[in-house]
Each structure stands twice: as structure tokens, then as C-alpha cells.
Amino acid sequence: MSESPGIARIRGVLSPVVTPFDAELRPDASRFVRHCRWLLDQGVGLAVFGTNSEANSLSVAEKIALLQRLVDAGLPPERMMPGTGCCAFSDSVELTRAAVRLGCAGVLMLPPFYYKGVPDEGLFRSYAKIIERVGDSRLRVYLYHIPPVSQVPISLALIERLLRDYPGTIAGIKDSSGDWSNTRAMLERFQPQGFDVFAGSETFLLATLRGGGAGCITATGNVNPAPIARLAREWGAWEISEADRRQAALDALRAAFQQFPMIPALKAAIAHYGADPGWVTVRPPLVELDDAQRRTLTRTLDNMRFSMPGLAS
Amino acid sequence: MSESPGIARIRGVLSPVVTPFDAELRPDASRFVRHCRWLLDQGVGLAVFGTNSEANSLSVAEKIALLQRLVDAGLPPERMMPGTGCCAFSDSVELTRAAVRLGCAGVLMLPPFYYKGVPDEGLFRSYAKIIERVGDSRLRVYLYHIPPVSQVPISLALIERLLRDYPGTIAGIKDSSGDWSNTRAMLERFQPQGFDVFAGSETFLLATLRGGGAGCITATGNVNPAPIARLAREWGAWEISEADRRQAALDALRAAFQQFPMIPALKAAIAHYGADPGWVTVRPPLVELDDAQRRTLTRTLDNMRFSMPGLAS
User: Fold this and answer.
1) ipTM of this complex prediction, to 2 decimal places
2) Superfamily per CATH, domain B12-248
3) Measured between CB atoms, does B87 come within 8 Å of chain A?
């Protein structure tokens, strides 16, 4: 492990923070800061600008302004892992540079995702050249493997090559493939080298932790942060059956959201349980839940005795 | 047709102009202007910032600067259809606004392409809100249907709805589905309403023209512009068999390029036949052809008596 001594790696549970918009579809920085603060209080880190953040519907300038607002508001950058991988090479360099300058613990980096079927050599060059352009020893890159959405997978061979050439800088991965055999292969081959494997949702959280992984980065961290964070923190002290029972409870809550498109459903829940209707707004190409969907969601959640303690101010 | 009188629509053959980069991977505006001028001289229009332009590897600022350079160099914006559809809503608005301000004939607009499986309602809102934000009666939007790459298709129902709500502004489509039945359906249903259908390559050029379509926007327009433009201009005056023979010759030339990844192959040909080796550079995640591939390509092309007259200065 070539990690610099004294730099604590970010671990545990992170939330890809949903991004609030005002009626004009501008990012709403005040609501964003408030939600991030609540998430930190609940024990999860801030993977701002993830897929569930509608990050790819935001410009680089909008993302840098939001990140700056979080830091200006006194939120700890050592609990932040902003998504900085864009289609355009120049955008990824600019956004990654800003994240490092602001002291973020790491960045979660999608491969360039417009061109499909590109060779590993091209993806290697993309990561390598971004790292070299940013040129800062504080940079910690977490690869973002989400083939169902990006359609550009990150192979084990690519990870091996990046780890060999950029040890320490290549710090881990979020595996949103939904394929446990892939996560397990990464845990076995790369986690022992200090390459932190995060499951792409809490579905594989316990399995990932048992396999020596770092935690998870999960959409539902926006709405159910404390129970997910608690599993990650305390599972080792519990009986196996107790840990399994807690995992099953997390799975059931997630399933309630998965009845609907995830991002609009997360925002509907925050709007409802936070008594803040403006939260439902999404940017195109997404569409907010309709009234009937919202009622079904909240009825399901109420029946599960779901709550978001401390969210409504 | 609600087109304003006096505004001539762009038609015929357009080239998604390949974007040159210098050794530092910066866009090379001088080479870009030179290539665009050559393309215009050969009779094709400029669909700058298309898929084959590596447009999605360029930032919005880089694209606006390149477009400004073309106009500053005296190239006619009425022969330009820049690609302006980005992932991020705010980026698409900014780039489209710049294109309209510079007087471009139209814009070729990808749907937002990160989020997959989004409803038509979300895509409708995306186009509608961009059109409303740009708020300029000169705007002509050409939809860009390229599901093999974007993975976000533009359905016939979506076109119908957009045409109804934004007649005149919704000006046409580039159909890069590779599915002739889809192109034919558009020609039958929408071309009579003044919705100009461009084939996504010269493969379906003659069929599109025979079906009443507007032309094609094709990668190989970068290297074989004059013969493709000539077919579009003169096919109606030729015997059917002569037109078919010319189409077959275009197909054979295209096949030579399709042995390799298209963008690196186009750049290799321009570098070779233009005696300008710097042209081979691509941005990640693409990879330039290796020496053996370049030799195979140029040998194939030489055997076909291929040339790029007037390219080498």
C-alpha cells in the first residue's frame, strides 16, 4: 500500500446526494447544504454529484459552485467524494482539480461514457491523463463502474493496470454492476492492496463488509441513512443472524423505493417527510412522480413505520 | 409548414467535422478552420460537433471557441449545423444559444444521454425547455437519433408531439439508427410536413433522397465529400442504374474505413493524404490507429484510387 501515512481513507456509507432545483430548474444551494448537513448528522458521507444526484444534468460550473457552497458552509470536505467523471476530458480535469483544491477526501470518477465499445487502452489513457493533468498528490480516485447506465464497463484488467501505474492515487471503486461475482473478484484481487471496494447499493453491503470491503455508496442513503450507516459501523459486533436481519430490513425499505424511478422517488420522500414540497423538482430528462405514485409511495413507507427524523426543520 | 419565408433550409450532404488536437490534446483551431474550408469547397456542409467530431470529449467552452473561430474566419454559418445536445440541460442551452447567435442554419441536438430508460415525457421536456430558454425564432432544431451510441432513442411519438408544439423550430432529424424501416417511417410521416430527414450515413443516401428526404450527415463526408455531395445533387438527373452504381461506389469506399474504428481511421486518412501527421491525434477514450492499421488502410485506399484533392497545401 502506497497510501501516504496520516491520510485517513473515507469509508463506510456514502450518499449520492440528490440535488434540489428551484422552480426555474436552477440548483438550490440552500436546500442542498441543509440536506448534506442532515446526512452527515445521520452518519453518512457525501458522494455528491453521483448518478442519483442528476450530476450529469448539471454543468461543471454548477457543480463547482455547489461544492464551494458546501465547504463555505463549514461542511467537512474529508467526508466528501464528489463525482467528477464527465464525457469531456477537459471537463473531468477541471472538476477534479476543483475537488482536490477544496480538500475532498476523494473523487468518484465515471469513465467517459458517450463513446461505446472503446478499448481498455483508451479508458486507461483517460484516467491516466486526468491524473497527470490534475497533478496533485492529494488526489484519490475512486473508479465508478456502473455499466447498466454508463454502458462503459471498467474491467479487472484495467483496474490492475491503473493500480500498478498510479498506486495510492487509484484508491478504490464503486461497483454498481449489480453483479456480485464482479464485486467479489475485486474484493479478492484488489482490496488487499488497499483498493477500497464500495458496493453500489446497500443490497450487497453486508456481503461487501464480510468480504473486507469499505462500505457502500447508495441512493437510499438519502432517505434511510442512519440504519444503513449503523449496519456498516456495528455489523462486526453483532451475531450473524442479527446482521442478516438488519440487512433484510434495509432491503425491504429499498424495495419500497424501487417500485418507482429512483431519483424522483427519493425526492418525493424528502419533500413529504421533510415537509418541503419544492424538493420534488427534477431536471429533464427525468420526470417527477405523479400524485398517485407519491401517495402509493408514502402509504407504503408509512406502513413500514418509515421516518426521516430531524429532516423537517 | 410554418417555416418563416425567406429562410432557406440546409440540405444535401453534411460532414460531422473531425476535430484536430495538438500534442497537448487542445483543440487545434487553425487545422479545424482549414479542414472546414476544404469541406465547403468540396460541396458539403459543416455538422461540426457531431459524434465523429469527438464532440462529447470537448467542453462547451471549447466548442463555442471553435465555432467562433469558424465564423471569424469568414466561413458561412448558413452552412453549419453544430451539435449542441449535451448531457446537462444547462450546457445544451448555453451551446445552442451560442450557435443561434452566430447565425448557424440549425443545430443537431442529441437527447440528454446519461440517464437510460427515461420516458418520452422527459425527453419532450428536455427539448421543449431548451427551445424555450433559447427563445429565438431563428432556432432550427434537428433531432439526433443515434440509439447505438446514445442508447436514448427518439420515438416517432416524440417527434409527432414536438412537431405539433414547436412547428418550424423542430426542423428535422438525423437518423443514425441504421434501421431503414425507421427512416422510411419518418420520411412518410414527417417529411411532408417540412421535417427534413437526413440519413445517418451515405449508406441510405440514395434511398433517403428517393423517399423525399433532405440528404445525409456522414462520417465519410470528411474524406470523400465530393462524390457523396455529387450523388445528392445530381441523382435525379441520372438513370436509375447509374445512380445505383454511384451509390455502390460510395458504399465500397465507406467499407474500407469501417475495417477500423471510424474516427481514428478518418483522422489517419486526413493525416496521410493531407501530408499532415499531427491529424492522427484523438482524445481519450479513443485511441489512434497503430502503424500497421494505418498502412492497411492507406494500401486499401490507394488500391481504390482514392484521393483527397486539394487537401495537402
Assistant:
1) 0.95
2) Aldolase class I (3.20.20.70)
3) yes
